[in-house]
Automatic annotation (TrEMBL), chains A, B:
The lineage of its organism: Bacteria, Bacillati, Bacillota, Bacilli, Bacillales. Residues 88-272 form the IclR-ED domain. InterPro entries: GAF-like_dom_sf (IPR029016), HTH_MetabolicPath_Reg (IPR050707), Tscrpt_reg_IclR_C (IPR014757), Tscrpt_reg_IclR_N (IPR005471), WH-like_DNA-bd_sf (IPR036388), WH_DNA-bd_sf (IPR036390). This is Transcriptional regulator, IclR family. It comes from the Bacteria. One of its GO terms (biological process) is negative regulation of DNA-templated transcription.
Length: 272, 272
């Protein structure tokens, strides 16, 4: 690599990392396949299914699948002719949870927080394309039936109290874009809000109060109380939320939960 | 895709999945980068370091890194200009541990097994190129200092009691190849065996007894007791092992451990 080329690499490294033009299609396909196989409904797929769902040719899929299988990122079962996640992802995920700044500290404290709140608590991350994923969760040790969620659960859109905690800190232009997208797709969340104004007000309140509460927004019967976790640069790194049954939500209890979550978030500020 | 092409895809799908000719170089590079960033020593690397260690050009690395960053498989820190593992791997690894056949059941039982044995127990997987990786581990709840290992720890070669539990069930041609490789590289394990014959005898014993014991083979001062976990087709799927200090190993205790491990392995037979 000569000096000119070198300089160009350095320049592009500094520009936005979200530029699709710099994507390697086969690596993007590999990630799509892993995401597909990480959903319960599609945890075991044939080559044909993978090709259909990823909109890539069978030949291309097969080559990517083989490469992933060699590294044990996925497995191929000769009898069922199905692909599924591979065991190498287990230690890789474990290492990530130790190495991603702040996450391991927070994960260690989640069980204690769940005991304190008396409900399931979750640590959520925002993914590209307006999705939210459960990074970690903890449930209190009581024997009562309660709301639960699994690690890796994806929530499409930025709905619910936790989605709002991410969206509220975006620029208002992102709010507008999000509202238009929701109404265009007839999204469940859009139907929960009588108008664009009430939706904006909810986002403004979330931003002012630094917390959000939602009832039945992501799924009927479930409520959520959420607070943002700030990075040292002031951006929202993750969201900390409580998941509970709407029938067990009372306003006083909700306020107490927000207080606990916010105290915790304050202690964790800048960890990420 | 026409019928001919289809047929060719199906045929190649059935042939060995280890054929390098079918690899997609950028996907292989993506996996190498993730593996590199999952080691403690190289958990945070600049583009230059990644390019050097993966033997790929900066331009190629940058494009792969960008693609991985978009999916949150890795993260880029603008201040340090370093790449590290991304948070999306956490839920992905979690899903894999639930979905990889048998692993979640086994992981749930490991803590109880550790209590029973009184030492750290590990679940190990064989990776391509003769390495063994710790998929899961559990330590007993006593407060005594003990041997420990971290999840994701890689052991090169197929040494130690656990490596021998994998190698013993390979064809003798693989034994010979392994012995030649070890002696050629002046491997620690080769030095532990006075001759090729004693090494073969140890493998034959492992195969006959269905268990292995090693002292100081992977690291001085550490002993290991291991048994193979068989898949329903009779192949060795994983290895279950106890890690302890050689100074705390006594033959009677070792025999008791083998008994416990073998009873557990028998219960788990065919789970994988």
């Amino acid at each position: 690599m000569d000096r000119e080329e070198m300089k160009s690499v350095e320049n592009t490294e500094n520009s936005a990392t979200t530029d699709v033009a710099y994507e390697v299609p086969s690596v993007a396909l590999a990630m799509s396949i892993l995401k597909l196989l990480s959903r319960y409904k599609t945890q075991s797929c044939t080559l044909t299914e993978i090709s259909k769902r990823t909109h890539a040719s069978k030949t291309t899929c097969l080559r990517v699948l083989r490469t992933l299988a060699r590294g044990d990122f996925i497995r191929y079962d000769k009898v069922s002719r199905c692909y599924s996640l591979g065991a190498y992802l287990i230690p890789l995920g474990n290492r990530a949870s130790q190495m991603v700044s702040g996450v391991s500290e927070v994960m260690l404290e989640l069980p204690r927080l769940a005991e304190k709140v008396g409900e399931t608590v979750m640590l959520l991350e925002r993914l590209p394309e307006d999705a939210v994923i459960v990074l970690a969760k903890a449930a209190p040790s009581s024997e009562v039936a309660r709301a639960d969620v699994s690690i890796g659960q994806l929530f499409a859109g930025l709905g619910g109290a936790f989605g709002r905690c991410f969206l509220a800190y975006d620029a208002p232009s992102a709010w507008r874009k999000h509202w238009m997208k929701m109404t265009a797709t007839g999204d469940r969340v859009a139907k929960m809000w009588s108008s664009q104004e009430t939706f904006y007000e909810a986002l403004e309140t979330t931003r002012r109060v630094g917390a959000a509460v939602s009832h039945g927004e992501m799924a009927a019967g479930f409520s959520s109380v959420a607070v943002p976790l700030f990075a040292s640069d002031g951006s929202v790194a993750l969201v900390l939320a409580v998941l509970l049954l709407t029938s067990q939500y009372q306003e006083e209890r909700g306020k107490a939960m927000i207080r606990i979550l916010q105290q915790t978030a304050e202690r964790w500020r800048g960890l990420f």
